[in-house]
Structures are given as C-alpha cells and as structure tokens.
Specification:
The chain is 36% helix and 4% strand. The protein has a domain of 26 residues. The chain contains three helices and two strands. A two-stranded antiparallel ribbon has the order 1-2. By secondary structure, the chain is mainly alpha-helical. Strand 1 and strand 2 form a beta hairpin.
C-alpha cells in the first residue's frame, strides 16, 4: 500500500506533529514502508500458535491480596500542613 503526501500531512496534523513540507515525501515513504511490513505480518500463518506474554515461559509473581490500613498514618500526616484527628485538614470550600 502506498501513502501519498497529502495523507502523510493529514496523519501528521492529527498526531499534532509539525512536519516541514520538504520532509513530507520522506514521511510518506516511511509510512508506506511500515504498512508494507504490516502486510508481511498478515501473511504469516499463526493458526494454532498460543499467545505469549513473554518470550520465556514464566509465571507472574503473585501475592496475597489482603486489605490493610497501610500502617503509616503518622508518617504520611507528618508532611501535611494541617492534620486533625488523624486526617488531612483542608479549608472549607462549600458554604
């Protein structure tokens, strides 16, 4: 598939990338090359191939999902400009 200069300019605009007019032909060619690589990947027969998370078979590390209070209330509140009764104190904004 071939990408023309107008399409490359539109893609650059949508991506909010400033591309000078003299660089647009090279960008269009690069987009065409990328689409060519994608077309090559579509030709590969992947029937029966199991999806992988990593190139090496391994299990993800897991931990017990337990609810805790964090145990650091005093340490966290020590940085607060105003703390009362174990909570952050903020100015009232609603009357």
């Amino acid at each position: 598939m071939s990408i023309d200069i107008e399409t490359a300019a539109r893609v650059a605009k949508l991506a909010r990338i400033r591309v000078e007019d003299d660089a647009l032909p090279a960008l269009a060619q690069e987009f065409s090359n990328i689409l060519g690589f994608i077309e090559q990947l579509n030709e590969v027969d992947v029937e029966g191939v199991e999806p992988m998370v990593s190139v090496e078979p391994m299990r993800l590390k897991r931990r017990k999902d337990g609810v805790t209070d964090g145990g650091m209330q005093d340490k966290i509140l020590s940085n607060a400009p105003d703390a009362r009764e174990g909570f952050f104190a903020v100015p009232k904004v609603v009357e």
